[in-house]
Protein backbone atom coordinates (compact mmCIF):
# COMPACT_ATOMS: atom_id res chain seq x y z
CA UNK A 1 0.00 0.00 0.00
CA UNK A 2 1.30 3.45 -0.95
CA UNK A 3 1.21 5.79 2.04
CA UNK A 4 2.27 9.32 2.98
CA UNK A 5 3.34 10.11 6.53
CA UNK A 6 2.82 13.81 7.31
CA UNK A 7 4.98 14.79 10.29
CA UNK A 8 4.78 18.00 12.27
CA UNK A 9 8.38 18.33 13.57
CA UNK A 10 7.15 20.74 16.26
CA UNK A 11 4.67 18.22 17.71
CA UNK A 12 4.87 18.33 21.48
CA UNK A 13 4.69 14.70 22.58
CA UNK A 14 7.22 12.98 20.33
CA UNK A 15 10.98 13.33 20.02
CA UNK A 16 13.06 13.11 16.81
CA UNK A 17 14.24 9.66 17.92
CA UNK A 18 10.66 8.59 18.57
CA UNK A 19 9.58 9.82 15.16
CA UNK A 20 12.35 7.75 13.56
CA UNK A 21 11.14 4.63 15.36
CA UNK A 22 7.56 5.18 14.21
CA UNK A 23 8.67 5.90 10.65
CA UNK A 24 10.69 2.68 10.48
CA UNK A 25 7.79 0.66 11.89
CA UNK A 26 5.39 2.04 9.29
CA UNK A 27 7.91 1.70 6.44
CA UNK A 28 8.33 -1.99 7.25
CA UNK A 29 4.70 -2.58 6.24
CA UNK A 30 3.97 0.20 3.75
CA UNK A 31 5.50 1.83 0.71
CA UNK A 32 6.04 5.01 2.67
CA UNK A 33 6.89 8.57 1.73
CA UNK A 34 7.58 11.04 4.56
CA UNK A 35 6.88 14.77 4.61
CA UNK A 36 7.92 17.11 7.42
CA UNK A 37 5.80 20.25 7.42
CA UNK A 38 7.62 23.59 7.24
CA UNK A 39 4.87 26.22 7.30
CA UNK A 40 1.18 26.69 7.93
CA UNK A 41 -0.81 25.12 5.11
CA UNK A 42 2.05 22.84 4.02
CA UNK A 43 0.28 19.69 5.19
CA UNK A 44 -2.90 20.54 3.26
CA UNK A 45 -0.95 21.32 0.06
CA UNK A 46 1.12 18.13 0.23
CA UNK A 47 -1.91 15.99 1.05
CA UNK A 48 -3.91 17.34 -1.88
CA UNK A 49 -0.99 16.60 -4.22
CA UNK A 50 -0.60 13.08 -2.79
CA UNK A 51 -4.31 12.35 -3.27
CA UNK A 52 -4.07 13.46 -6.90
CA UNK A 53 -1.06 11.15 -7.34
CA UNK A 54 -2.99 8.08 -6.16
CA UNK A 55 -1.74 7.65 -2.59
CA UNK A 56 -3.92 5.10 -0.76
CA UNK A 57 -3.31 6.10 2.86
CA UNK A 58 -2.43 9.38 4.61
CA UNK A 59 -0.94 9.09 8.11
CA UNK A 60 -0.53 12.08 10.39
CA UNK A 61 2.02 12.39 13.19
CA UNK A 62 1.22 15.58 15.04
CA UNK A 63 -1.55 17.31 16.91
CA UNK A 64 -5.11 18.22 15.99
CA UNK A 65 -3.94 21.13 13.83
CA UNK A 66 -1.97 18.74 11.63
CA UNK A 67 -4.97 16.41 11.36
CA UNK A 68 -7.20 19.34 10.40
CA UNK A 69 -4.84 20.47 7.63
CA UNK A 70 -4.52 16.95 6.24
CA UNK A 71 -8.30 16.44 6.25
CA UNK A 72 -8.78 19.71 4.39
CA UNK A 73 -6.16 18.63 1.86
CA UNK A 74 -7.86 15.27 1.39
CA UNK A 75 -11.30 16.84 0.87
CA UNK A 76 -10.36 20.07 -0.90
CA UNK A 77 -12.38 19.12 -3.99
CA UNK A 78 -15.44 18.19 -1.90
CA UNK A 79 -16.03 21.70 -0.54
CA UNK A 80 -17.79 22.87 -3.66
CA UNK A 81 -19.30 19.62 -4.91
CA UNK A 82 -20.43 18.07 -1.63
CA UNK A 83 -20.80 14.33 -0.96
CA UNK A 84 -20.82 12.10 -4.01
CA UNK A 85 -22.68 9.20 -2.32
CA UNK A 86 -25.51 9.07 0.24
CA UNK A 87 -23.13 8.32 3.11
CA UNK A 88 -20.57 10.88 1.90
CA UNK A 89 -17.87 8.29 1.27
CA UNK A 90 -15.70 8.04 -1.83
CA UNK A 91 -14.09 4.67 -2.65
CA UNK A 92 -11.37 6.36 -4.72
CA UNK A 93 -10.26 8.65 -1.88
CA UNK A 94 -7.39 7.55 0.40
CA UNK A 95 -8.03 6.61 4.00
CA UNK A 96 -6.67 8.52 7.01
CA UNK A 97 -4.70 7.16 9.96
CA UNK A 98 -3.80 9.29 12.98
CA UNK A 99 -0.78 8.90 15.27
CA UNK A 100 -1.21 11.31 18.23
CA UNK A 101 1.76 13.64 18.62
CA UNK A 102 0.28 16.83 20.03
CA UNK A 103 -0.78 17.94 23.49
CA UNK A 104 -4.55 17.26 23.41
CA UNK A 105 -5.06 14.86 20.44
CA UNK A 106 -8.84 15.19 20.69
CA UNK A 107 -9.60 13.54 17.34
CA UNK A 108 -7.33 10.53 17.94
CA UNK A 109 -8.74 9.99 21.42
CA UNK A 110 -12.31 10.24 20.14
CA UNK A 111 -11.45 7.43 17.72
CA UNK A 112 -10.36 5.29 20.68
CA UNK A 113 -6.67 5.24 19.76
CA UNK A 114 -4.00 4.90 22.46
CA UNK A 115 -2.46 8.19 23.59
CA UNK A 116 1.08 6.79 23.30
CA UNK A 117 2.38 7.26 19.70
CA UNK A 118 4.13 3.88 19.63
CA UNK A 119 1.03 2.04 20.85
CA UNK A 120 -1.15 3.98 18.41
CA UNK A 121 1.17 3.02 15.54
CA UNK A 122 0.87 -0.62 16.55
CA UNK A 123 -2.93 -0.30 16.64
CA UNK A 124 -2.94 1.24 13.14
CA UNK A 125 -0.73 -1.51 11.71
CA UNK A 126 -2.98 -4.16 13.29
CA UNK A 127 -6.05 -2.44 11.81
CA UNK A 128 -4.41 -2.40 8.38
CA UNK A 129 -3.70 -6.11 8.73
CA UNK A 130 -7.39 -6.72 9.54
CA UNK A 131 -8.48 -4.20 6.88
CA UNK A 132 -10.43 -2.47 9.61
CA UNK A 133 -11.69 1.08 9.07
CA UNK A 134 -14.69 3.26 9.86
CA UNK A 135 -16.53 6.11 8.17
CA UNK A 136 -16.43 9.32 10.19
CA UNK A 137 -18.79 12.27 9.86
CA UNK A 138 -17.21 15.72 9.75
CA UNK A 139 -18.30 19.31 10.12
CA UNK A 140 -17.89 22.05 7.56
CA UNK A 141 -17.82 25.80 8.13
CA UNK A 142 -18.10 27.70 4.84
CA UNK A 143 -15.20 26.27 2.79
CA UNK A 144 -13.31 24.63 5.67
CA UNK A 145 -13.69 21.17 7.26
CA UNK A 146 -13.36 20.43 10.98
CA UNK A 147 -13.14 17.14 12.82
CA UNK A 148 -14.29 17.77 16.39
CA UNK A 149 -15.13 21.38 17.32
CA UNK A 150 -15.63 24.97 16.27
CA UNK A 151 -16.29 28.16 18.17
CA UNK A 152 -17.10 31.84 17.76
CA UNK A 153 -16.24 34.54 20.26
CA UNK A 154 -14.45 34.00 23.55
CA UNK A 155 -12.78 30.63 22.92
CA UNK A 156 -11.70 31.66 19.40
CA UNK A 157 -10.20 34.86 20.83
CA UNK A 158 -8.20 32.70 23.26
CA UNK A 159 -6.94 30.53 20.38
CA UNK A 160 -5.94 33.64 18.40
CA UNK A 161 -4.09 35.15 21.38
CA UNK A 162 -2.20 31.92 22.14
CA UNK A 163 -1.21 31.60 18.47
CA UNK A 164 0.34 35.08 18.65
CA UNK A 165 2.20 34.08 21.81
CA UNK A 166 3.49 30.90 20.14
CA UNK A 167 4.70 32.96 17.18
CA UNK A 168 6.85 34.94 19.61
CA UNK A 169 8.39 31.73 20.99
CA UNK A 170 6.26 31.12 24.09
CA UNK A 171 5.04 27.59 24.77
CA UNK A 172 1.31 26.87 24.46
CA UNK A 173 0.92 25.19 27.87
CA UNK A 174 -2.38 24.54 29.69
CA UNK A 175 -1.39 27.26 32.18
CA UNK A 176 -0.91 29.76 29.35
CA UNK A 177 -4.29 28.84 27.87
CA UNK A 178 -5.92 29.30 31.28
CA UNK A 179 -4.28 32.69 31.86
CA UNK A 180 -5.19 33.87 28.38
CA UNK A 181 -8.78 32.66 28.85
CA UNK A 182 -9.11 34.79 32.00
CA UNK A 183 -7.79 37.87 30.20
CA UNK A 184 -10.12 37.36 27.24
CA UNK A 185 -13.04 36.73 29.59
CA UNK A 186 -12.52 40.11 31.28
CA UNK A 187 -12.37 41.76 27.87
CA UNK A 188 -15.59 40.01 26.83
CA UNK A 189 -17.31 41.27 29.98
CA UNK A 190 -16.47 44.86 28.98
CA UNK A 191 -17.44 44.37 25.32
CA UNK A 192 -19.79 41.35 25.11
CA UNK A 193 -20.52 39.78 21.74
CA UNK A 194 -24.08 39.34 20.56
CA UNK A 195 -24.97 36.46 18.23
CA UNK A 196 -28.10 35.12 16.60
CA UNK A 197 -28.19 31.34 16.11
CA UNK A 198 -30.46 29.47 13.71
CA UNK A 199 -31.07 25.72 13.93
CA UNK A 200 -33.49 23.93 11.58
CA UNK A 201 -36.93 23.45 13.08
CA UNK A 202 -36.46 25.91 15.95
CA UNK A 203 -37.00 29.62 16.54
CA UNK A 204 -33.86 31.81 16.21
CA UNK A 205 -31.84 32.23 19.40
CA UNK A 206 -30.98 35.90 19.91
CA UNK A 207 -28.49 37.82 22.04
CA UNK A 208 -26.20 34.80 22.55
CA UNK A 209 -22.80 35.60 24.10
CA UNK A 210 -20.82 32.41 23.43
CA UNK A 211 -21.27 29.53 20.98
CA UNK A 212 -19.53 26.16 20.53
CA UNK A 213 -20.25 23.63 17.78
CA UNK A 214 -19.22 20.02 18.42
CA UNK A 215 -18.84 17.05 16.11
CA UNK A 216 -18.00 14.58 18.90
CA UNK A 217 -17.45 14.35 22.67
CA UNK A 218 -15.42 15.52 24.56
CA UNK A 219 -15.30 19.00 23.08
CA UNK A 220 -11.62 19.27 24.08
CA UNK A 221 -9.27 18.52 27.00
CA UNK A 222 -7.91 20.81 29.70
CA UNK A 223 -4.66 19.50 31.21
CA UNK A 224 -5.82 15.96 30.43
CA UNK A 225 -9.32 16.45 31.80
CA UNK A 226 -12.16 16.05 29.27
CA UNK A 227 -14.35 19.11 28.66
CA UNK A 228 -17.92 17.94 28.00
CA UNK A 229 -20.35 20.45 26.52
CA UNK A 230 -22.55 17.95 24.65
CA UNK A 231 -21.88 14.47 26.06
CA UNK A 232 -24.14 12.74 23.53
CA UNK A 233 -22.29 14.04 20.47
CA UNK A 234 -20.66 11.45 18.19
CA UNK A 235 -19.12 11.41 14.72
CA UNK A 236 -22.26 9.84 13.28
CA UNK A 237 -25.11 11.88 14.79
CA UNK A 238 -24.77 15.36 13.33
CA UNK A 239 -23.60 18.55 15.01
CA UNK A 240 -24.21 19.72 18.56
CA UNK A 241 -24.64 23.31 19.77
CA UNK A 242 -23.62 24.66 23.17
CA UNK A 243 -24.28 28.35 23.83
CA UNK A 244 -24.43 30.79 26.73
CA UNK A 245 -26.88 33.66 27.05
CA UNK A 246 -24.82 35.41 29.71
CA UNK A 247 -21.14 35.64 30.71
CA UNK A 248 -21.61 36.68 34.34
CA UNK A 249 -19.25 35.09 36.84
CA UNK A 250 -21.92 32.88 38.49
CA UNK A 251 -22.88 31.49 35.05
CA UNK A 252 -19.26 30.87 34.05
CA UNK A 253 -18.39 29.25 37.39
CA UNK A 254 -21.40 26.93 37.29
CA UNK A 255 -20.80 26.05 33.63
CA UNK A 256 -17.11 25.26 34.14
CA UNK A 257 -17.95 23.10 37.15
CA UNK A 258 -20.38 21.05 35.05
CA UNK A 259 -18.38 20.71 31.82
CA UNK A 260 -15.25 19.64 33.74
CA UNK A 261 -17.06 17.02 35.83
CA UNK A 262 -16.31 13.37 34.92
CA UNK A 263 -20.00 12.85 34.14
CA UNK A 264 -20.48 16.39 32.82
CA UNK A 265 -23.97 17.07 31.42
CA UNK A 266 -24.35 20.87 31.68
CA UNK A 267 -27.78 22.47 31.98
CA UNK A 268 -28.97 25.82 33.32
CA UNK A 269 -31.17 28.80 32.57
CA UNK A 270 -28.35 30.55 30.68
CA UNK A 271 -27.27 27.42 28.78
CA UNK A 272 -28.65 26.51 25.35
CA UNK A 273 -28.03 23.02 23.95
CA UNK A 274 -29.12 21.39 20.73
CA UNK A 275 -27.90 17.91 19.75
CA UNK A 276 -28.09 15.90 16.52
CA UNK A 277 -28.72 18.80 14.16
CA UNK A 278 -27.77 18.88 10.44
CA UNK A 279 -26.77 22.55 10.36
CA UNK A 280 -26.21 25.59 12.55
CA UNK A 281 -26.00 29.20 11.37
CA UNK A 282 -24.46 31.89 13.58
CA UNK A 283 -24.67 35.61 12.75
CA UNK A 284 -23.30 38.71 14.44
CA UNK A 285 -23.36 42.39 13.52
CA UNK A 286 -19.70 42.77 14.47
CA UNK A 287 -16.93 40.42 13.27
CA UNK A 288 -16.12 37.65 15.75
CA UNK A 289 -13.10 35.36 15.86
CA UNK A 290 -13.65 31.86 14.46
CA UNK A 291 -11.71 28.72 15.39
CA UNK A 292 -11.95 25.23 13.94
CA UNK A 293 -10.21 22.33 15.72
CA UNK A 294 -8.18 24.87 17.69
CA UNK A 295 -7.01 26.77 14.59
CA UNK A 296 -7.82 30.49 14.35
CA UNK A 297 -9.32 31.39 10.96
CA UNK A 298 -9.84 35.13 11.31
CA UNK A 299 -13.13 36.91 11.94
CA UNK A 300 -16.65 36.36 10.58
CA UNK A 301 -20.09 37.94 10.84
CA UNK A 302 -21.99 35.00 9.35
CA UNK A 303 -21.00 31.30 9.44
CA UNK A 304 -23.01 28.23 8.49
CA UNK A 305 -21.88 24.94 10.02
CA UNK A 306 -22.92 21.78 8.18
CA UNK A 307 -22.78 18.12 9.19
CA UNK A 308 -21.46 15.80 6.46
CA UNK A 309 -22.08 12.14 7.41
CA UNK A 310 -19.47 9.54 6.52
CA UNK A 311 -17.18 12.12 4.93
CA UNK A 312 -13.92 10.33 5.66
CA UNK A 313 -12.64 6.76 6.00
CA UNK A 314 -10.34 6.33 9.00
CA UNK A 315 -8.14 3.34 9.84
CA UNK A 316 -8.67 2.38 13.48
Describe the structure.
By secondary structure, this protein is an alpha+beta fold. It contains nine helices and 16 strands. It has helices spanning 16-27, 42-52, 64-74, 78-81, 106-110, 117-130, 154-167, 174-190, 249-259, and strands at 2-7, 31-36, 57-62, 95-100, 133-141, 144-146, 149-152, 195-198, 205-208, 210-214, 220-222, 225-227, 239-244, 271-277, 279-292, 295-315. Strands 5, 6, 7, 8, 9, 10, 13, 14, 15 and 16 form a ten-stranded antiparallel β-sheet that branches. A four-stranded parallel β-sheet has the order 2-1-3-4, sandwiched between helices. Helix 1 (16-27) runs parallel beside helix 6, helix 2 runs parallel beside helix 3 and helix 7 (154-167) crosses helix 8. The radius of gyration is 19 Å and the shape is globular.
Q: How would you summarize this macromolecular structure in one to three sentences?
A:
The protein has helices at residues 16-27, 42-52, 64-74, 78-81, 106-110, 117-130, 154-167, 174-190, 249-259, and strands spanning 2-7, 31-36, 57-62, 95-100, 133-141, 144-146, 149-152, 195-198, 205-208, 210-214, 220-222, 225-227, 239-244, 271-277, 279-292, 295-315. It has 316 residues and is of the alpha+beta class.
SSE blueprint and pairings:
Elements: E1 2-7, H1 16-27, E2 31-36, H2 42-52, E3 57-62, H3 64-74, H4 78-81, E4 95-100, H5 106-110, H6 117-130, E5 133-141, E6 144-146, E7 149-152, H7 154-167, H8 174-190, E8 195-198, E9 205-208, E10 210-214, E11 220-222, E12 225-227, E13 239-244, H9 249-259, E14 271-277, E15 279-292, E16 295-315
Parallel strand pairs: 1-2, 1-3, 3-4
Antiparallel strand pairs: 5-6, 5-16, 7-10, 7-15, 8-9, 8-15, 10-13, 11-12, 13-14, 15-16
Amino acid sequence: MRALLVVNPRATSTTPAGRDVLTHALASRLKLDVLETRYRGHAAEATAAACAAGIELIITLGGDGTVNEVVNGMLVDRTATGPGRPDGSDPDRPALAVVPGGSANVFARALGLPRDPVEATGAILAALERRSSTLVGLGRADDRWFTFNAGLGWDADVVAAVEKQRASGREASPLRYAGTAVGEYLRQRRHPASMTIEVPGAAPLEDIRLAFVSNTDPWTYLAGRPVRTNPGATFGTGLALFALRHLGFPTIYSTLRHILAPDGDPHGRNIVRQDRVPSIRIRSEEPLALQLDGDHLGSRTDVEFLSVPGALRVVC
